[in-house]
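WARN retry 2 of 3 for item q-0093 after timeout on previous attempt; input resubmitted unchanged.
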Amino acid sequence: MNITPLSQKEMEEARPGEALTLTTVFVVFTVVILTVVAYRLFLSGDSKITLPGGYKFEWGD
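OK item q-0093 returned
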């Protein structure tokens, strides 16, 4: 594998923080969405969930 070093101009144009910022935004959105879904699901009067692997959860008033 041939490795070619970046020129000074190429190094100045690189923005390493963009990937970190984008990843952080995706993680925050995912956590918020899952939190809202869990909140609405567990505060509902009664519900039934079947997860892959045969796990079943049921609850009601």
